[in-house]
Amino acid sequence: QKEVEQDPGPLSVPEGAIVSLNCTYSNSAFQYFMWYRQYSRKGPELLMYTYSSGNKEDGRFTAQVDKSSKYISLFIRDSQPSDSATYLCAMDTSGTYKYIFGTGTRLKVLA
Amino acid sequence: DTGVSQDPRHKITKRGQNVTFRCDPISEHNRLYWYRQTLGQGPEFLTYFQNEAQLEKSRLLSDRFSAERPKGSFSTLEIQRTEQGDSAMYLCASGFVDSPLHFGNGTRLTVT
Lengths: 111, 112
Description:
The structure holds 2 protein chains of 2 kinds. By secondary structure, chain A is mainly β. Chain A has strands spanning 4-5, 11-14, 19-25, 32-38, 45-51, 54-58, 61-66, 71-76, 85-92, 100-101, 105-110. In chain A, strand 4 and strand 5 form a beta hairpin. Chain A is globular, with a radius of gyration of 13 Å. Chain B is mainly β. Chain B is 0% helix and 50% strand. The A-B interface holds A 4, 6, 8, 32, 34, 36, 41-46, 49, 88, 90, 95-104 and B 4, 6, 31, 33, 35, 40-45, 48, 56, 58, 91, 93, 95, 97-98, 100-106, 108.
């Protein structure tokens, strides 16, 4: 079993939809939770960074962490075709930044 | 903030050749990381530096791989005697303590 599980998709949604992306994990020591967006042939771009449990909002993006369920989510409101990319979750135990990444979910937002 | 810069963007080499990649981190960041990403997978940690000191290497980093960060600025990653299994995207990232990592756009290595 991988430490971090993420559905690879692809996930196709119409423009304007609310998108929900999720990761589950097995290591209860994870404390730092990140979401990155990666366009084809580009590096990962940081979207959200959360320490421990709770919610964090930034514009159209909301990140949720539920440590009791070992489950994290990224919500994208009013999705746009430009949001079409692969979304990677990443986790870290102690701030050393040896991140454990999920495999990424491919998202397609249809105009 | 010009971001993390990596060079070259794409390298094609024949099996058995040596290759070297360069990473220029965001200037004020003292931590620098190398990750490897294969198709359909998330990045995997290879090694990291705090200033010029290489603090940890993953078991993924065989003896054919070596990384340096002279003077705590740019970093190089060298792969000797390349194998087809080395074909991947090599990503560099930098950051401060207590801040998340920022990645470059990677060097895509193709070993033929």
